[in-house]
Amino acid sequence: xxxxxxGGGLVQAGGSLRLSCTASTRISNSHSIGWFRxxxxxxxxxxxxxxxxxxxxxxxxxxxxxxxxxxxxAKNTVYLQMHSLGPDDTAVYxxxxxxxxxxxxxxxxxxxxxxxxxLVTVSS
Length: 124
What we know:
Structural class: mainly beta
Strand content: over 45%
Oligomer: single chain
Order of helices and strands: EEEEEEEEEEE
Number of strands: 11
Radius of gyration: 13 Å
C-alpha cells in the first residue's frame, strides 16, 4: 500500500492544521498507521499512532492534548489534527505503516512503509 501525506503549510503560532495520510488501498486492521516528524538537523521522531487491532491511539508527550490522530476507514485516510501549534512543531511530517509489535508503537525503525513528507512551518 502506498501512503501519501498532505496538508502541510505555513501557519502562525497558535494556529491549526490538519494533515492527511491517504492510502492507495484499504487500510487493514493489521496495520498501525503513525505520524512522525523531522525537524532540520534532528532525528525523525514519533508523533502519534493509531494502533492496529483495536484502533487505540498514542501520542508523544510533546503533542498530547494538542494533536489528535483519527482514521476514516471509508476514505482510506488517517488524519492528524494539530492545534496550538508552536515554532517547535516546525518539521517535515511523515506518515508510515507497520504490522510490527504494538508495544513499540513509537519505534520509527519498525515502520517499513513510508509516505513522502509534508512540510509544516509555524511562524512565531
